[in-house]
Amino acid sequence: MAWRKSPQALVALFDATLPDDPRVERRKMFGYPAAFANGYLFAGLHQEDLILRLPAEGREEAVRKIGARPFEPMPARTMRDYVALADAHRLDVAKVRPWMARAFTYAQSLPPKPAKRAKAKPAKKPVRK
After folding, report:
1. 3-class DSSP state for residue 52?
2. The CATH classification of domain 8-109, taken from the options 3.90.1150.30, 3.30.300.10, 3.40.630.190, 3.50.50.60
């Protein structure tokens, strides 16, 4: 099953609510915009959903207050620590920005991920004639 592209309104909301902080690293993940801090994904898009990484109490509060649900990129594959906001593009920036900030703060509270070492490239095999 092919994943659907995120609506432009959702991409605009994502861009508008990302913290303006030099520690935020923007990347693409599976073709979708994503934001990392301290080496951890803290926010991103997946199809029509805005994805946020929150601590346990934040996830519970997001479910109650803004209709979030546990994030399952595929059926029965729940990503721990993440919630998805369906129809987030219908929410205004002022409502989403505090949740984005909480996700960023949570990622900053986690121990830094060690830098990955570059993989060694295999030696070229001699060409036989």
Report:
1. strand
2. 3.90.1150.30
